[in-house]
Design a protein that fits this description.
Number of strands: 8
Oligomer: single chain
Order of helices and strands: HHEEEHHHEEEHEEHHHH
Strand order of the largest sheet: 6-5-4-7-8
Number of helices: 10
């Protein structure tokens, strides 16, 4: 057994029931003691029945689930922890059908659990710096494989697909996002919002990257159309390896993600490359995901509307 991971059996020993999972979650979200999620007060808190607390300052009754992705969920917390463990340790993800069998819930509940966890995965706002590789890819079926009534008949290539922009810091973190268009204005704005000024940007020859050198960045590119993939330190191999794993997961595990939900799947894959990377111990990765769950509540109505 690798020293950087734990087995499923060990996880069940650590969190055999709802109570042990609740204690773990409270220790992560309230390291200095019980805190009211509404007024942030730690004073005048009284304990009530069934793991509830009362804030006598703002008169709120709450649990450790309040204000997190676990709020108003009937799924026990130890099943949530196991679901998080499976999502983190599966290189290409886990389907809602498989998760439903693993934790003993309906497919509908498992899908909602996964969407909530993915919502927490998008909680990283730190800027990238140093040498950052930037590239875009597209998700969606081929026009020729669609039913005639669904074909756009507007061209080839990226027609009808959703664009995703990826930024990977060499030796560091990865950020990716769904974009409406892959034009200069959209891409330049995304880079400026996610990369520290003064960084070195590595791209391919796509014209949307032209002008980055005028915006406090050093820009180098390679021409893939001319058969050039590496020129000195200039290449986009790292970010393209991200697309390789992500597309294998999307096609092989999830098969399809709608435009409405694609950003959460992108968050899931980038989390596994960052705080959820395999070089970290499984429990450290679980701690990071638990910490990210606070303040990310999402309802079923918000997900499905």
């Amino acid at each position: 057994m690798s020293r950087s991971t734990i087995s499923t059996f060990k996880l069940f020993e650590m969190f055999p029931d709802e109570e042990t999972a609740r204690q773990y979650l409270e220790s992560r979200l309230w390291p200095t003691g019980v805190r009211c999620p509404e007024c942030k007060s730690q004073e005048r808190i009284t304990t009530r029945k069934q793991a509830y607390y009362r804030c006598n300052a703002c008169h709120l009754d709450f649990t450790v689930r309040t204000g997190t992705i676990f709020e108003r969920s009937h799924v026990p917390l130890h099943k949530w922890i196991y679901a998080m463990y499976l999502l983190m340790t599966a290189r290409k993800g886990i389907s809602s059908m498989q998760l439903a069998k693993e934790i003993g819930v309906t497919q509908k509940s498992a899908w909602f659990v996964l969407q909530r966890i993915r919502e927490a995965c998008g909680n990283d706002t730190d800027l990238l710096q140093g040498t950052v590789e930037v590239d875009e890819t597209f998700f969606g079926g081929l026009e020729k494989n669609k039913h005639k009534c669904r074909r756009l008949n507007a061209g080839r290539g990226a027609v009808g697909k959703v664009a995703v922009l990826g930024l990977r810091e060499r030796g560091g973190r990865t950020t990716a996002m769904v974009i409406n268009k892959n034009d200069s204005e959209t891409i330049h704005k995304a880079i400026e919002e996610n990369v520290l000024p003064g960084s070195v940007i590595m791209t391919d020859e796509h014209k949307s990257y032209n002008g980055l050198a005028d915006k406090q960045f050093t820009h180098a590119s390679v021409s893939h159309s001319a058969g050039e993939f590496v020129r000195g330190d200039a290449h986009t191999n790292s970010i393209e390896s991200v697309w390789s794993v992500m597309k294998r997961g999307m096609h092989g595990v999830y098969h399809k993600a709608s435009r409405k939900h694609l950003h959460r799947y992108v968050n899931e894959f980038t989390f596994r490359l960052n705080a959820g990377r395999v070089s970290r111990h499984t429990l450290d990765r679980l701690d990071s995901l638990m910490d990210a769950s606070a303040g990310r509540r999402i309802t079923y109505k918000e997900v499905t509307r």
